[in-house]
């Protein structure tokens, strides 16, 4: 398999405040093959989450020179089709939230799968049997000790259970690209390590491209992750640079 996600010359500028210059983040180049994982690292407030949201097509004012998914030019598409691409091909695990509070966990999974399949149909992409996807998701919950939470609501779960449930919801529709924002920020080191191990195992099994924002360099080194690291350019800008493993 060749490069699945290709990005060139990404930038995002924050609005100016109090007549001061805005701040801009840059990413010159990004190429990801199926199954590859990149950790996005850098100091707090440098724009890691903004970068993730921009690449996930969640920041409308993001600028791209090129954006290709599976050799298809995403920039040539209108906003509605970009939304469908995001729903059909991408998964997103936010730093907090991510579960619909009035649905139990099984209902959360089914809703995500149904919405994604509708988008795939509108894009004329191959769809998957929703019952098969749901069955696979339920089996993953069982495999990782969460089978007994499926009938529970998000507020009834522990923090660790909730984080794992959000992760499995973000992949239940079988996305090709997964964006993860600070998954261990609310967990102790032991549970954080468990969660990262689960994520890497599952994403590798299903050959997803994974971009994960994290501040935990110990876990990055332990799991030998390649890094997209922030460096300051000047007072008004910074950029993210590929470093390989650290």
Automatic annotation (TrEMBL):
UniProt xrefs under SMART domains: AAA
Pfam families assigned to the protein according to its UniProt record, in alphabetical order: ABC_tran
Keyword Ligase: no
GO molecular function, one term: ATP binding
Name under which the protein is recorded: Putative ABC transport system ATP-binding protein
Residues covered by the ABC transporter domain: 5-246
Matching InterPro entries: AAA+_ATPase, ABC_transporter-like_ATP-bd, ABC_transpr_LolD-like, P-loop_NTPase
Alphabetical list of PANTHER family matching this protein: IMPORT ATP-BINDING PROTEIN, TRANSPORTER, PUTATIVE-RELATED
GO CC annotation terms, alphabetical: plasma membrane
Leader sequence segment: none
Keyword terms: ATP-binding, Nucleotide-binding
Keyword ATP-binding: yes
């Amino acid at each position: 398999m060749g490069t699945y996600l290709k990005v060139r010359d990404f930038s995002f500028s924050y609005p100016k405040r109090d007549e001061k210059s805005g701040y801009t983040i840059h990413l010159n180049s990004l190429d990801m093959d199926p199954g590859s994982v990149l950790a996005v690292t850098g100091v707090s407030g440098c724009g890691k989450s903004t970068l993730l949201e921009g690449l996930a097509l969640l920041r409308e004012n993001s600028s791209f020179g090129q954006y290709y998914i599976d050799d298809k030019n995403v920039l040539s598409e209108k906003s509605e089709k970009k939304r469908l691409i995001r729903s059909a091909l991408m998964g997103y695990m936010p730093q907090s939230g991510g579960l619909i509070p009035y649905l139990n966990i099984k209902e959360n999974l089914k809703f995500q799968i149904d919405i994604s399949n509708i988008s795939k149909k509108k894009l004329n992409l191959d769809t998957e049997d929703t019952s098969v996807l749901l069955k696979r998701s339920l089996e993953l919950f069982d495999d990782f000790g969460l089978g007994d939470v499926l009938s529970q609501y998000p507020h009834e779960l522990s923090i660790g259970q909730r984080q794992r449930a959000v992760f499995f919801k973000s992949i239940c529709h079988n996305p090709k690209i997964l964006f993860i924002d600070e998954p261990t920020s609310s967990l102790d080191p032991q549970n954080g390590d468990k969660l990262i191990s689960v994520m890497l195992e599952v994403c590798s099994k299903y050959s997803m491209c994974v971009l994960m924002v994290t501040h935990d360099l110990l876990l990055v080194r332990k799991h030998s992750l390649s890094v997209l690291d922030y460096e300051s350019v000047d007072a008004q800008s910074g950029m993210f640079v590929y470093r390989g493993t650290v």
